[in-house]
Design a protein that fits this description.
There is one protein chain. This protein is an alpha+beta fold. The chain has two domains: 3-185, no CATH class; 192-264, Beta Barrel (OB fold (Dihydrolipoamide Acetyltransferase, E2P)). The protein has helices spanning 15-50, 61-89, 93-117, 144-150, 152-191, and strands spanning 3-4, 130-131, 140-141, 193-209, 212-223, 226-235, 247-253, 256-264. Strand 7 and strand 8 form a beta hairpin. Helix 1 (15-50) runs antiparallel to helix 2, helix 1 (15-50) crosses helix 3 (93-117) and helix 2 packs antiparallel against helix 3. It is elongated and about 95 Å long. The two termini are 27 Å apart.
Length: 271
């Protein structure tokens, strides 16, 4: 097992989890406002028109237009907060994945809350079960799709709540895996054997993690049983990008040679 981590600060970092929780509350509220205004400002009108009330945007268009403008502002704020949650998670693929799941949970939970609060305010159709007859024609019964559209006020929050429930389970598992990985890294930092290793091969993966390049590196380092070479990934800033022959800091567990942590060499260290 290899521990892959390259934080610039060697101290334990429990901040990302706290930042995600702090950002999650306003993000959820912003998505709740988005869900509420989107349900009443957009979906309500489309639902009425789909159920043969074409004049839904007529005399009552004023409040709907105001809600659309409110929806535009709300979705902009909510999206910005969602991107902030991605940045708050940290500069690694694993943590970025946790941030994406947390942001998705805030979105689903907010939409479920907002659209749920909007249920009593949806406009009832003029006719239930059949379409209003056109001049000179007869009324037609609703199709299965029309009935789905009719129950849209309940389906939207129900589906969003179901997605949120699944994401809660996924996020809990991700947090537990993240905590376990962090514990292994911290254990290596405190009890692992520290040596200086050297990069023997570097390959850019064409992947950028929150603006930082990701590399696959081969690192050779000395152990009590002789020299070893490990292959791992590194996410660094452009100024700390690894090069062939550059020194890195390696920590390994003498009892488990497969457990290795590779980090940038401290500033000012010599090769």
């Amino acid at each position: 097992m290899f521990a892959f981590a390259l934080p610039e600060d060697p101290r334990p970092d429990r901040g990302p989890g706290l930042r995600l929780w702090l950002l999650g509350v306003p993000t959820t509220l912003a998505w709740a406002a988005t869900g509420w205004s989107g349900a009443l400002g957009l979906l309500d009108g489309f639902r009425l028109m789909s159920l043969n009330r074409v004049g839904a945007w007529g005399a009552d268009a004023g409040p709907a237009v105001s809600l659309v403008l409110f929806f535009t502002v709300a979705v902009t704020v909510a999206s910005s907060l969602g991107f902030a949650m991605l940045w708050a998670a940290g500069i690694s693929l694993r943590r970025m994945g946790v941030g994406f799941r947390a942001s998705s949970l805030a979105t689903a939970l907010g939409v479920a809350l907002g659209s749920g609060l909007a249920i009593p305010s949806w406009t009832p159709p003029e006719s239930v079960g059949q379409r209003l007859p056109v001049p000179g024609g007869a009324a037609e019964p609703w199709s299965d799709v029309d009935w789905v559209v009719y129950y849209e006020p309940y389906l939207v929050p129900a589906v969003a709540a179901l997605v949120a429930l699944v994401l809660i389970v996924v996020l809990v598992c991700a947090f537990l895996a993240e905590a376990e990985a962090d514990d292994r890294v911290q254990a290596l930092r405190h009890r692992g054997r520290q040596v200086t290793g050297f990069v023997t091969h570097v390959e850019f993966t064409d992947v950028w993690v929150m603006g930082h390049p990701r590399f696959v590196v081969h690192v050779r380092f000395p152990t009590e049983a002789g020299e070893r070479t490990v292959v791992t990934t590194m996410v660094t800033s452009l100024f700390q990008a690894p090069a062939r022959g550059s020194a890195v800091q390696v920590r390994y567990d003498p009892r488990d040679p497969g457990t290795v942590l590779v980090e940038p060499a401290p500033a000012g260290s010599s090769c």
